[in-house]
Design goal:
The structure is a single chain. This protein has about 290 residues and is α/β, with parallel strands linked by helices. It has three domains: about 15-100 and about 185-190, D-Maltodextrin-Binding Protein, domain 2; about 105-175, 3-Layer(aba) Sandwich (D-Maltodextrin-Binding Protein, domain 2); about 195-285, 2-Layer Sandwich (Alpha-Beta Plaits). It has ten helices and 15 strands. The strands form three sheets. Strands 1, 2, 3, 4, 5 and 11 form a six-stranded mixed β-sheet that branches. A hairpin with a 7-residue loop joins strand 13 (about 235-240) and strand 14 (about 250-255). The longest helix is centred in the first third of the chain and has 16 residues, at about 1-15. The radius of gyration is 21 Å and the shape is globular.
């Protein structure tokens, strides 16, 4: 009796301390898969949009969030990157690269004419869809697309999502591995509330993520990048995003590998002095 009661208390304690982790999407989404790969004991909490995912984190409704930032086929995940710039008080603490294997899901009755999925997923299976003259139909989420096909089936309608989504929503896998490249992967980051760690606080081999706006002068982008390159810092990512209300002006999302922490810190400090604006997202293990 006492032993049974103790085991029940231990189970309750584990449930009570399970981290609440937000992701964008519905159950069965790739973001949920990545989340559970990182935090198997977590309570996954899906949100419909990236904005509401950030709101849940900043509002204290969750302990952290797992967000996609780039894909090997589709490139930058625009909304999550833009929100990292727009929302302060957050830091990146970890990353995870997750394999993405898309499936065509539906019911085996008649030809598939339209495929419902997130725009990023549709971009990653473009060749497959074009070769079969299947019309891509954007949806807010891969797993949400699968759920809609299951709950509101229409002739000729299928979803592009994971095999896990097929199991969850009772759909048939009509085709598997339809991504344009079998090396398809998405890079996710773990985001928490707090002050971002600087390179000086890290160890060799860490990754530093930031975004900057170059100074308004000729050669300013080159000057900004030389703050890092002259110190031998290896850039692993450099992507441009347009600045709203400023036509043909850009922010640059940049990652580099920390060699010697003190040298990396010098490079970052010079960049902060050289660029018009710099937002540090964090320095973290890879």
């Amino acid at each position: 009796m006492g032993s049974s009661r103790l085991s029940g208390l231990e189970a309750d304690r584990r449930v009570a301390i399970a981290p609440r982790v937000a992701y964008q999407g519905e159950p069965g989404a790739y973001s949920e898969e990545a989340l559970l790969a990182l935090f198997p004991e977590a309570e996954p909490l899906g949100r419909r949009t990236f904005t509401t995912t950030f709101d849940a984190l900043l509002g204290g409704q969750v302990d952290r969030a797992v967000l996609p930032v780039e894909n090997t086929l589709g490139g930058i995940v625009q909304e999550s990157n833009d929100l990292l710039w727009e929302r302060s008080g957050l830091r990146l603490v970890r990353e995870h690269v997750h394999p993405i294997r898309h499936c065509l899901l539906g019911f085996a009755s008649g030809r598939v004419e339209r495929a419902l999925s997130h725009p990023q997923a549709l971009a990653q299976v473009r060749h497959y869809l074009e070769a079969r003259e299947i019309e891509p139909v954007p949806h807010h989420d891969t797993a949400g697309a699968a759920r809609q096909v299951a709950e509101r089936p229409e002739p000729g309608l299928a979803a592009v999502a994971s095999r896990a989504a097929a199991r969850r929503y009772g759909l048939e896998v009509l085709a598997e591995g339809i991504q344009d490249d079998d090396s398809n992967r998405t890079r996710f980051v773990v985001v928490e509330r707090g002050k971002p760690a600087r390179p000086a606080q890290s160890t060799a081999g860490s990754k530093c993520s930031l975004c900057f706006v170059a100074a308004h002068a000729p050669g300013s982008l080159v000057a900004a990048l030389q703050c890092l390159s002259t110190r031998g810092l290896n850039l692993t990512r450099l992507e441009a995003r347009p600045i709203p209300d400023k036509p043909f002006e850009y922010r640059f999302f940049l990652d580099f590998i920390v060699g010697k922490p003190e040298i990396a810190e010098e490079g970052l400090r010079e960049l902060e002095a050289t660029a018009h604006e710099v937002r540090l997202f964090g320095t973290y293990g890879t």
